[in-house]
Amino acid sequence: MTLLSLFNNTAANVPQTLIWGEDDFLNDYIARSYTKEDKFKDLDRITVDCENDGLDELIANLTESSLFSTQKVVIVKNPFFLTSKVAKKFKKQLDQLQEIFSHSDELDDVIVMVASYEKLDKRKKITKTVMNNFNVINLKIKSYEVSAIAKSIIKAEGYIITQSALQLLVERSDQVMDTILSNYSKLKIVAQNQKITEKMVAENIELSLAQNVFEILEAAFNGNYPQALTRLENQLREGVNPIQLLAVFESQIEILLVVKILAERRRSETQIVKELGIHPYRVKLALKKRIAIEKLEHMLEKAIELDFKYKNGTYQSDEFLKMYILNA
Fold first, then answer.
1. Which residues pair with 20 in a beta bridge?
2. CA–CA gap between residue 195 and residue 14 (Å, rounded)
3. Residues of the chain with pLDDT under 70
4. How far is CA 33 from CA 111, 155, 177, 234, 309, in A?
5. Are 142 and 125 in contact (CB under 8 A)?
């Protein structure tokens, strides 16, 4: 199984490929996997970054006479000409690229375009041409799909991961696909017999800032204030400032609050996940917390107030943040 097959392909039999999505790491990961497939193993590889190397360099590589060159894979990074932000001075190059892409099925070379943009300008002629002539892989992933896709990628690469290890990997990666893949790459180095266990994840992947803040709140909610303060002091000692911490506190409390409100309105766990577009595990944890909506509202209000006072210079000492935790 190839990684491309895990996603929707508009034309799976077409070698010319457009990989499109906001996450750089994920896009590059999938592009590297595709270009390493056996069918391309004897081809030369050339990478052209349109923003740094320019469009003339790209055109030169795509029009080079096959008489003097071998078949190659041309990896095109940052194809800004597919977006709405293209200066008029590039009109000549755009016309040339339009002609090349219009006859992409006649090319000896394989083009793999990696477009790490939120949006492409689908009204433009050149964008329409690429989307009509290339196999388009849209890597936009919803938060609640992250675990399943990560598991599929790991399985496709021949690795085995336990469900508890996958859950911990996703947690410690803040449910962010790029971070999950980056951490998974670290685990592949230490995995024995291509097996990834929960213990391996715990020993090799550190808690993220959001995860550390979650642990602080968890300890405080359970009345374990010494542990909450110890974890908080560790974060401060590592250079995380109160404003950064408060931003995460606000986000965590807001999610708890909204989940509790939706649950009170009789929304199911599945409905809440889709309505908020967040990872199911976060919703499950929030639903388990026995804490009143009124208390969460008070905590969020105090966090916002504290954040404002740190930002305007009224508060500077860490002690005010510690007092906030003690009153949680």
1. 115, 138
2. 34
3. 1, 65-69
4. 14, 14, 16, 39, 49
5. no
Looking up tokens 């405080």 gives: 220
104 contacts 136 by C-beta, under 8 angstroms: no
Q: List, for residues 266-312, the tens digit of each pLDDT value.
A: 999 889 988 887 777 788 888 888 888 999 999 999 999 999 999 99
| Residues 262, 283: Cα–Cα separation, whole Å | 11
pLDDT at 101: 95
Give the pLDDT of residue 70: 75
Residues 90 and 55 sit within 8 Å (Cβ to Cβ):
yes
pTM: 0.76
Sheet with 72-77: list strands edge to edge. Answer: 44-49, 72-77, 110-115, 17-20, 135-138
DSSP letter, residue 9: B
* Residue 321: C-alpha distances to residues 128, 171, 227, 242, 317 (Å): 53, 25, 15, 7, 8
Both tokens of 290, joined, read 């026995």
Q: Is 86 helix (H, G, I), strand (E, B) or coil?
A: coil
Beta strands in the chain (DSSP E): 17-20, 44-49, 72-77, 110-115, 135-138, 160-161, 195-196
**Identity of the amino acid at 265:** R
Q: Rounded to whole angstroms, what are the CA distances from 169 to 28, 72, 105, 181, 243?
A: 20, 37, 41, 10, 27
The residues near 47 (Cβ < 8 Å, ≥ 6 apart) are 74, 75, 77
**DSSP H helices in 109-145:** 125-133
Maximum separation of any 2 CA atoms in the chain, in Å? 76
The pLDDT assigned to 65 comes to: 58
Q: Are 63 and 93 in contact (CB under 8 A)?
A: no
Residue-wise pLDDT tens digits, 184-197: 999 999 998 999 99
Q: Residue 226's pLDDT is what?
A: 92
Which amino acid is residue 12, in one-letter code?
Answer: A
